[in-house]
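Figure 6 in text form: structure in, sequence out.
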């Protein structure tokens, strides 16, 4: 048995330590917002936060995640009201929507580290996330919008 702390909740999972974290999250913990895309860390659909860093859960072993704090798209906000989730809707980003959990999780780390990113910053940070529908311009627009929302919240405090 391995204990994983996912979205601030402990899960006792009967998982092989070498199992990819993605499958422990989806199949054992039942959190299906994190998606399987390629299985080789090339597409970004499986991005989760591990101690605050964006990682590809399809190639991250469960043993690496034991004792760490894992955040999935389900844990990014309680009411789907994280600025990125709101901006994603306002900018009509999703087309098929498959990649967007990973896109949003990658963008959340970007905005935490750089609250006022340029187009180039966004393109660099998001280059590892593939969108088969090609919504890259809307993704960039939503990240700028989310950054603006975060700045307004910060300035009103």
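Output sequence:
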């Amino acid at each position: 048995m391995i204990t994983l702390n996912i979205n601030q909740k402990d899960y006792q999972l009967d998982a092989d330590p070498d199992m990819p974290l993605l499958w422990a999250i989806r199949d054992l913990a039942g959190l299906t917002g994190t998606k399987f895309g390629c299985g080789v860390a090339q597409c970004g659909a499986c991005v989760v936060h591990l101690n605050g860093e964006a990682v590809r859960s399809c190639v991250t072993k469960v043993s690496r995640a034991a004792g760490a704090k894992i955040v999935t798209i389900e844990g990014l906000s309680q009411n789907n009201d994280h600025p990125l989730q709101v901006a994603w809707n306002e900018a009509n980003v999703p087309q098929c929507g498959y990649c967007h959990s990973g896109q949003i999780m990658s963008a959340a780390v970007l905005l935490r580290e750089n609250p006022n990113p340029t187009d180039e910053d966004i393109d660099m940070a998001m280059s590892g996330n593939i969108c088969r529908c090609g919504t890259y311009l809307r993704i960039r627009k939503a990240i700028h919008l989310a950054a603006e929302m975060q700045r307004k919240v910060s300035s009103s405090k």
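Caption detail: Strands lie at 2-6, 9-13, 47-50, 53-56, 69-71.
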